[in-house]
């Protein structure tokens, strides 16, 4: 289900069904869809698809893949591009964010747009009489899942004290205080979803019961309730199946998770379904995040989301092929460096190929001199401004040349002008669940079991399909091994936790997850990690010399000023929305 069937109608439907006032003299406006016309099984299906479509309709700050909030803010990447383009992000990447930041407002509006769509579909479905009960149950479960997902995106960014609006509230602009923790409401939605969803669906884009369980576990982990998440994660990993009936499993080839040709595979628990139809539904939210430089390269615009020096060097390994858990990867020479040559044709950057590195470095990050999927090696023009963005390129979500030639991608499939592709991206994945489960095991002192989960991920990373080669020879000094049972991670809890957390950093690099991990691991941990990141990055990019450090209390973003002003005050003069204490 590629969601495209209702994208063209989505905003029109949302606006007309959410109208208020005197019913416009009791006449339906021309060009709108009357609610009565949708009060049937077909109408509900349209409204459910409309709720799914919210996942693909987002501004750059609202993408569910969180390249700004999760990736850039967490230190996986800097803004990239040049200093003047989308300058609103300059303060965010340097940790001087203000509540007036437009990207923050985009996220808030997107959350409640999705919630409104889900609520409207539930409200209309309550009056439908021609829908088979099995379909009604599934659609109810799908909508509760989607509503939980939309709220979870709000919680990750703004914290759990945001207004809860469900189908019982019919006002178009409800005035609700943000004085209650909504975690329990969101988890209750997922319990309803689990009770109603089937094991498989007629299309892989629809959620099934296992996706709902995985999302519940992920939310519990963000909440800090590892005890409740642990058995759910175990169940998902051992017994779960995709919506099209595939038993969950890790793909041998990492690229299988980032290709239009192999999407909705066994590692994908829930993926956002993108397409390249006439509605330009090609992942608008990440349309800035492709190499720069015109035709003949992947995207041609706009040079944002460039991997950080800190992330790239995290992939250094020791002589045994294991991560440097003592953070000594920040010492010595970098894995790549700016080419000092002034010759115009000289490559922008060179690699220290004697340094042993995890092969996932060149899967997650584009480096000069290393094949960039099937596009050849990067050209200097692919980096818009190395002084501002550095020398690395995003890679995971970027389409291949074969996909472009097959009509599955181009430089103009997002919003009609920007790069995009039909490549689905996984919002919930087995690799994520395995590493979350490893965290639970490590927390409970089950260290061997935790490291066995980590070693599953590392074994896959070292398989032959994941070693990039040039003329049959590895393109860099790749070295990766599983942790031996003699390693301290098998006997020392603190070391085990370090190993699990490092594995998440490496495996999920550039997937918009990093800052949400740091924040849920605690304010002090987050603040320390961000300080270390800033201090390292300023050695390479001058702009970080003016960066601030995030205080431990700021494990959330501020509520947008414009939303506080719009909501106003109640009868007693109390604001409906109050800023979290750290941001006052």
TrEMBL record:
Membrane in keyword set: yes
Subcellular location: Cell outer membrane
Regions crossing the membrane: none
Keyword ATP-binding: no
Domain named RagB/SusD: residues: 266-568
Pfam entry (one): SusD-like_3
PROSITE patterns according to UniProt: PROKAR_LIPOPROTEIN (PS51257)
Primary localisation category: membrane
Keywords linked to the UniProt accession: Cell outer membrane, Membrane, Signal
InterPro entries cross-referenced by the UniProt entry: SusD-like_N, SusD_RagB_dom, TPR-like_helical_dom_sf
SusD-like N-terminal domain span: 81-219
GO CC list: cell outer membrane
Protein name: SusD-like protein
Organism lineage string: unclassified sequences, metagenomes, ecological metagenomes
């Amino acid at each position: 289900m590629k969601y495209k069937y209702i994208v063209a109608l989505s905003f029109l439907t949302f606006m007309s069904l959410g109208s208020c006032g005197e019913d416009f003299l009791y006449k339906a406006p021309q060009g709108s869809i009357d609610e009565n016309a949708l009060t049937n099984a077909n109408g509900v299906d349209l409204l459910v698809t409309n709720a799914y479509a919210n996942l693909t309709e987002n501004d750059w700050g609202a993408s569910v893949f969180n390249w700004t909030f999760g990736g850039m803010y967490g230190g996986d990447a800097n803004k990239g591009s040049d200093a003047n383009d989308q300058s609103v992000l300059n303060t965010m990447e340097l940790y001087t964010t203000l509540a007036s930041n437009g990207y923050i407002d985009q996220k808030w509006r997107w959350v409640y747009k999705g919630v409104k769509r889900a609520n409207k579909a539930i409200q209309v479905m309550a009056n439908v009489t021609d829908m088979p009960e099995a379909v009604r149950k599934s659609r109810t479960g799908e909508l509760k899942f989607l509503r939980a997902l939309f709220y979870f995106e709000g919680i990750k960014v703004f914290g759990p004290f945001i207004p809860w609006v469900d189908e019982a509230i019919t006002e178009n602009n409800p005035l609700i205080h943000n004085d209650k923790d909504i975690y329990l409401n969101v988890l209750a939605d997922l319990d309803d979803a689990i009770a109603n969803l089937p094991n498989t669906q007629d299309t892989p884009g629809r959620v099934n019961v296992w996706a709902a369980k995985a999302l519940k576990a992920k939310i519990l982990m963000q909440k800090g309730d590892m005890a409740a998440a642990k058995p759910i994660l175990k169940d998902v990993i051992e017994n779960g199946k995709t919506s099209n009936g595939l038993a969950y499993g890790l793909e041998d080839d990492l690229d299988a998770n980032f290709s239009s040709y192999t999407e909705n595979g066994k590692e994908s628990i829930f993926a956002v379904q993108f397409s390249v139809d006439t509605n330009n539904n090609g992942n608008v939210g990440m349309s800035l995040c492709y190499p720069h430089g015109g035709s003949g390269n992947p995207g041609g615009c706009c040079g944002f989301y460039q991997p950080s020096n800190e992330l790239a060097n995290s992939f250094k390994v020791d002589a045994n092929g294991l991560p440097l858990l003592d953070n000594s990867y920040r010492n010595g020479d970098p894995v790549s460096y700016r080419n000092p040559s002034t010759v115009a044709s000289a490559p922008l950057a060179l690699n220290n190929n004697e340094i042993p590195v995890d092969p996932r470095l060149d899967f997650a990050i584009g480096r000069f001199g290393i094949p960039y999927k099937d596009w050849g090696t990067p050209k200097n023009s692919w980096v818009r401004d190395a002084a501002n963005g550095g020398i690395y390129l995003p890679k995971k979500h970027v389409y291949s040349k074969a996909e472009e030639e097959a009509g599955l991608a181009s430089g103009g499939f997002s919003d009609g002008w920007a790069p995009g592709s039909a490549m689905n991206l996984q919002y919930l994945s087995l690799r994520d669940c395995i590493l979350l489960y490893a965290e639970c095991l490590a927390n409970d002192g089950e260290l061997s079991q935790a490291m066995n989960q980590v070693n599953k991920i590392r074994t896959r990373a070292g398989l032959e399909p994941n070693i990039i080669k040039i003329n049959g020879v590895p393109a860099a000094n790749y070295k990766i091994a599983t942790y031996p049972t003699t390693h301290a991670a098998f006997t020392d809890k603190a070391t085990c936790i370090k190993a699990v957390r490092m594995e998440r950093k490496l495996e999920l690099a550039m997937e918009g997850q990093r800052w949400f991990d740091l924040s849920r691991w605690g304010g002090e941990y987050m603040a320390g990690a961000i300080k270390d990141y800033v201090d390292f990055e300023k050695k390479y990019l001058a702009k970080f010399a003016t960066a601030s450090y995030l205080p431990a209390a700021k494990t959330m973003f501020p509520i947008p000023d414009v939303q506080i002003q719009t909501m106003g005050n109640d009868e007693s003069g109390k604001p409906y929305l109050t800023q979290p204490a750290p941001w006052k």
